[in-house]
Amino acid sequence: MNFEELNLNRRLLASVDDLGYTNPTPIQEQAIPVALEGRDLLGLAQTGTGKTASFMLPILQRLLTGPLGPVRALIVAPTRELAEQIHQTAIDLGKNTKIRSVAIYGGVSKVTQAKALNRGADIVVACPGRLLDHVNDRSINLSKVEVLVLDEADTMCDMGFLPDVRRVIAQLPRKRQTLFFAATMPDEIRGLSKDILDNPTTVQIGIIAPAKTVSHSLYPVTDALKKQLMMDMLRQTPTGRVIIFTRTKHRARGLAKDLEQAKYRVAALQGNMSQNRRQQSINGFREGKYDVLVATDLAARGIDVTEVSHVINFDMPNTVDAYIHRIGRTGRAEQTGEAFTISVPEDEPLVRKIEAVLGSRIERRRLPDFDYGAFSTDRQPSRDRPRSRRPFPSRRPMRLAQNGR
Length: 405
Ligand code: AMP
Description:
The chain is 38% helix and 16% strand. By secondary structure, it is of the alpha/beta class. Mean pLDDT is 85; it is low at 377-405.
């Protein structure tokens, strides 16, 4: 199938072409016709499948007819990064139209946002908390909303946003189209979808599982050797852009510093950084100023960088969902990627759950030439163990030839 067959307006087809999309992705093929007919949709798809365009193109097509000025489409997303990215997609795909999009999220000036809303916004892409602030301030009018999109609804649930999301929905006209996207369907999310969707068409891309284009491997090791293993892993592996995930902000910051000392071009991305600094890290990573991004789960939600060759889980995530989201950063848009997970014995129960979702066992690997005997862990409790003092390697990761840079 090609985009012409989707009956999209010429102006939208021109921007699709400019973005270099040649064929619709599977979710676009299935979701766009449903959304264009004005029906409700339950999209079970993870980030990286092209789902943003799958709701943005039908929204833009709808807004091409009817008045411009009032907010007619509202997209609610869990994080600023994701909201910013969806807003950018609205700009890119809507560039040949007069449709305006405004992004609304916390951590930046509310006044500037209120002014932008006042100038007129047809599409609003918002995080729930700040959106409710604007509702309370009466700087936004949601009474003309025709389409609601909830993106990464499962993430919103994980982050405790569901009460806010329900408050937002209470502000909207009952008669509207609702497009609901989630990568996983925990009970609470299933409940919400039942409450707000009217006879929806379900579109599911593959099983609700990580992208098939990612290969997974596990590097079992003891806690004391994790950092050294990761350093050696980076040194030995020809990588393109790499995202390393840690469980805490503190660890993300520390690891980024260690990598910087080892002469890697690295940036951190964690919740204690200002919105500006976070954006600088993401932009720098996207533009190739940094090869390595060390991130926590929440800060990394929605990062859209297509050429991520490797995701390294320095710490195992807390849940299967978080694992799926993390590795969704690589293997995007039908490229291939690798997910390396450094695991300690306590991670085994979660590993088994992940394997159940993947439907296969994750290959256990040993890093060649790595000294697994260093700092034997059997003798002393972990906090008393000596820390690695071995000098870090001073090489940057090699780039994959196919990255062409
Ligand atoms: P998403 O799942 O919306 O975050 O999209 C993942 C990536 O795929 C983004 O970088 C999009 O720009 C890209 N993308 C979306 N649709 C297409 C398409 N039809 N062809 C190629 N790339 C696409």
